[in-house]
Amino acid sequence: MARFKVAALQMRSGTDPEPNIAAFEALVREAAAAGAVYVQSPEMSGAIQRDRKALHAVLRGQDEDGLARTAARLARELAIHVHIGSTAIATGDGKIANRAFLFDPEGRLVTTYDKIHMFDVDLDNGESWRESAAYTPGTETVVADIGQAMTGLSVCYDLRFPQLFRAQAMAGAQMLTVPAAFTRQTGEAHWHALLRARAIENGAWVIAAAQGGTHEDGRETYGHSLIVDPWGRVVADKGDAEPGVVVAEIDTDAVGAARAKIPNLKNARQFSVRIAQAAGSGERAAS
Description:
The chain is an alpha+beta fold. It has seven helices and 18 strands. The protein has one domain (3-262): Carbon-nitrogen hydrolase (Nitrilase/N-carbamoyl-D-aminoacid amidohydrolase). The protein has helices at residues 17-33, 52-58, 66-78, 162-170, 184-202, 253-261, 264-267; strands at 3-10, 36-40, 81-90, 96-103, 109-114, 120-122, 128-130, 142-145, 150-153, 175-177, 205-208, 212-214, 220-222, 226-228, 234-237, 244-251, 274-276, 283-285. The protein has a six-stranded mixed sheet. It has a six-stranded mixed sheet with strand order 8-9-10-11-14-15, with helices on one face. The chain is globular and about 65 Å long. 42% of the residues are buried.
């Protein structure tokens, strides 16, 4: 059994990394003071900037990134795990990685994760996003052992791809992480439902730190940072789009209990798909 407190930081990152780093540090300290030993920030904690030229002007490589250095220092000083949900990192090829960082209580880098699924969508309200035009997608998911729990990493739009979280759960993940910058429109429609679904179908805790409010570059994000238990119950919800912290206690025994009640991970079977067509046209196997 492992009981420990986790925290999700809700931010409203602007276009300049320095104020964002200061806000991040203040929230991490608030979370640690509340007893959290694992602290997660949202997607794009370092800067939210839709102007690509302006974003490139403030980008740094992984070793020079100010947010990553601050997170490592805070993890060591406060003796906690600090998880940067993601920040933009220059990759040296003219593109950018939407990269998560996880630091251990000694300030050592445990792992990084690059967002796999690119947010290329056109929304009803006229918003259009082409993340793949600027960012290089990742190619592998990550499950990290943080001592108290096996922890699966993802970023924002990954949430809509349940196969990623199923793979993490099958690899032993007890806690799934979904740092995000969900738009207000999609958040109002789907945020709670999708996070609860990922928790229920995998019998896992879900921690989701969010961006919230109207940002300097004009975008609106939904907020409502959440912590969901393995039975799909929301145990902490920021409840608004304002910056702040939500904290809850994790009990890893709840993972085993949920998976024992509904053993869908164990009961999963391989199958094929057969497409049935109208009478007279025959049937064919899906390729």
